[in-house]
Amino acid sequence: MLVERPPLFYRMLFPETLWRIHKREHTVYLTFDDGPVPEVTPWVLDTLDRYGVKATFFCVGDNVKRNPELFEEVKRRGHSVGNHTMNHMQGAKVPTRTYLRNVQEAHELIQSPLFRPPHGLLRWGQSRVLRSRYTIIMYDLVTRDYSKKLTPEQVLGNVKRFARNGSIIVFHDSIKAQERMKWALPRAIEWLLAQGYKIERIPM
Helix/strand/coil (H, E, C) string of 76-113? Predict the structure, then answer.
């Protein structure tokens, strides 16, 4: 549970970031990290279209640079986008100045007010600067579709166990995650809709 749902003490370290979106309606927010990549993202877009669902894609700048038409297609289909750094850089491992330059480089391509730090890792000083420029979007539920230690059924089980009203749910449109994600995503959407949830994108 420490991975699938970040513990309260960690959320309290970054109180001005968004971990969950509380609304009166029964609503969850579907997000995807690390794309866009041509091997996976088009399949995700078609799947979301099939269910009439909109989501938010936190994009790595290098992938946007390599796949600009695919990035534009994500937006054309009505999804929102966010900055996920230029090189999937972990803030806790690099100096603040280096990290902020990396985020800015990605911003020049992505042009979004939304930012999500890779792995949810930030130094406090990085967070202080970034929250003056972006809405920092964390998460309430990580499916762990990227983990080779989990089966696709366990990924779906994480959604069923931890989803709640206002959850920001993380899947990955990445090559690493695709086998588990492609099995679990449509089943997760069907289960969420059957539970009466609305599935929405995070507004930019």
Answer: HCCCEEEECCCCCCCHHHCCHHHHHHHHHHHHHHHCCC
